[in-house]
Amino acid sequence: MNRAAAAWTTGLVVCLHSVLTAPAGAESAVSAATATDIVVAAADAVGPVTGYPLPRFVSMKSSIGNARRGPGFSYRVDWVFNHTGTPLLITAEHGHWRRVEDIDGMGGWMHFRLLSGIRTVVHRESETAIRDRPDNDGRVNAFADRGVISRLDRCTSDWCRIYGDGYSGWVLKEEIFGVFPDEAED
């Protein structure tokens, strides 16, 4: 099973559960067609609304974003993201709504206007070494703590070039969230 299929297998269960368990009185969230659209998107690995690949990474455009239980403003807010640039994984689409997850798997449905296509990453480890070249022997330019958000420039098979707040350099892919393990430029 490839990365997209594996992510969809997990995301689909969460997505359908979230949508199908709408609170009483909430707007009509799911029809048979919507549930079918979501299943078709899982099989095709593209979003039924945008046609973009699923899953895919985006970032927070605004400084505060509510992640809701279902795809609509009348659904309860389950989680609040509060930092511009936070990398998020989109796992499903429904109308103007995107099902997102953060580095810890927390998330919900967010309105598309709160999201940006600008790619960012967040550091998983304390004191992640940012090197001058994609090599463990490269000179260390800086260190980043867990939770620091950086802009993504490009990736090779094992390394990604990042920048932000006056630093730039290369980090190991396994030390950041916001890129897929097999993502690389040719």
Please explain how this structure is put together.
The chain is α+β, with helices and mostly antiparallel strands and 186 residues long. It has helices spanning 3-20, 32-44; strands at 56-60, 65-68, 77-81, 87-94, 97-101, 107-111, 115-116, 120-123, 128-131, 140-144, 149-155, 159-164, 167-172, 176-177. Strands 6-5-4-1-7 form a 5-stranded antiparallel beta sheet. The protein is elongated, with a radius of gyration of 17 Å. The relative contact order is 0.14. Mean pLDDT is 82; it is low at 1-41.
Query: Could you give the order of the helices and strands?
Result: HHEEEEEEEEEEEEEE
| Main beta-sheet strand count, sense and barrel state | 5 strands, antiparallel
Helix share, percent: 10-25%
Silhouette: elongated
Please tell me how large the radius of gyration is: 17 Å
* Number of strand segments: 14
Unreliable runs, pLDDT <50, ≥5 residues? 1-41
Average pLDDT, all residues: 82
Strand content: 35-45%
How far is it from the N-terminal to the C-terminal residue, by CA? 23 Å
Class based on secondary structure composition and strand pairing: alpha+beta
The strand order across the widest sheet is 6-5-4-1-7
